[in-house]
Amino acid sequence: MLKGVIFDVDGTLVDSNDAHAQSWVDTFTEAGYDVPFEKVRPLIGMGGDKLLPETIGISRDSDEGKRLLERRGKIFLTRYLPHLRPVPRARDLVLRVKRDGLKAIVATSAKDQELKGLLKAAHVEDLMEEKATASDAKRSKPDPDIVQAAIEDSGFAQRDLVMIGDTPYDVEAATRAGVRTIGFLSGGWTRADLKGAVETYAGPADLLAHYDASLLGHERSDR
User: Burial code of 72-92, b = ≥16 C-beta within 10 A, e = fewer?
Assistant: First the structure.
């Protein structure tokens, strides 16, 4: 019986993936690196530990990597976060989950400081009961560390949880952690990209429209 739902945030509950990509592009441009938006955008959903080596070949733990991560965080928080909007009906979905007796949990590659603003932008900051962030994991998605941290925080077994995410990295991380995934297309990926998800919906509104027939409806804890 399902007891909890692990939510990704970026692209799943708040429309922020393009903003994250542009904040990286701005950061690289300031530092003298020519990295186009088109190269960065498909990597959003990973953390800086994956994105920096993939784009400019440096480690997150290097002096330059640390400087770029700090600068990107400031750019995102000041230029982009204040303008973000929720994915349509994100709050309604989390409310429905909680009304059905399921625990709402966050598993995100975002840092703690960013997460607070993202949850506020998604209008769900008062609804999440547990939060696992980049601070709780050595490696970001698609490694399973963040999902595993969310599982531990939940107090439930993997079989009693489902994760909702919008990127291939969410699906892979959850699968490697032993958790089933519901995929959302709201982050810009296709159904083929989200192969491995047990169900795929356009976003929160679509899942709500089919809620009773979904995995959440079939296995909810009030039955």
Answer: bbebbeeebbeebebbbbbbb
Task: Specify the pTM.
Answer: 0.94
Second-level CATH architecture of 4-15+85-219 = 3-Layer(aba) Sandwich (3.40)
What are the DSSP calls for 126-155, one per residue?
TT-SEEE-GGG-SS-TTSSHHHHHHHHHHT
| pLDDT band for position 222 (cuts 50, 70, 90) | very low
List, as own/partner pairs, every contact residues 20-26 make where C-beta atoms lie below 8 angstroms and the sequence separation is at least 24, other chains included: 20/44, 20/76, 20/80, 22/80, 23/72, 23/75, 23/76, 23/79, 23/80, 24/51, 24/55, 24/72, 26/72, 26/75, 26/79
Question: For 17-82, CATH number?
Answer: 1.10.150
Could you tell me the two tokens for 5? Answer: 């739902």
Cis geometry, peptide bond prior to residue 142 (ω within 30 degrees of 0):
yes
Q: Tell me: the pLDDT tens digits for 43-62?
A: 999 989 999 999 999 999 99
- CA 88 to each of CA 85, 95, 112, 124, 205: distance values in angstroms, whole numbers, following the listed order: 9, 13, 24, 12, 6
Q: What's the average model confidence in pLDDT over 149-159?
A: 95
Tokens of 107: 């598993």
Q: List the beta bridge partners of residue 127.
A: none
